[in-house]
Design brief:
alpha+beta, Conserved hypothetical protein from pyrococcus furiosus pfu- 392566-001, ParB domain
Length: 119
């Protein structure tokens, strides 16, 4: 199992979107672009050893929309084809399983409002 998170800068044309990506993300691209513009690129695009995206299609599209020439990339080495397919799905599905703590979320939003930070 690969435990080191090595990150490289790759040109956008070196990264290939997965042509069977089951996740529809067009509605999120603009929001992710705004986030990247505000906070910087904080999560790499994860690719297989051939440069095909495993996780990060929305970040990739947002980078293109912003006119960036490069993106941070993590190469997931040593995964089988089955593991790659499973990771593509798991990466998105696990986010859907999380829930907001509706007692704490308003407190955080109020604090941001008081700091005059609009998200």
């Amino acid at each position: 199992m690969q435990t080191e998170l090595a990150i490289e800068q790759w040109s956008l044309d070196r990264v290939t979107p997965y042509d069977k990506n089951p996740r529809k993300n067009e509605g999120a691209v603009e929001k992710v672009a705004i986030s990247i513009k505000e906070f910087g690129f904080r999560q790499p695009v994860v690719v297989d050893e051939e440069g095909v995206i495993i996780a990060g299609h929305t970040r990739f599209k947002a980078a293109k929309q912003l006119g960036l020439s490069e993106v941070p990339v993590h190469i997931a080495k040593g995964l089988s084809e089955a593991q790659i397919k499973a990771y593509r799905i798991a990466d998105n599905k696990t986010n859907e399983l999380a829930e907001w703590d509706l007692d704490l979320l308003p407190l955080e939003l109020t604090a941001l409002e008081e700091m005059e930070f609009d998200i």
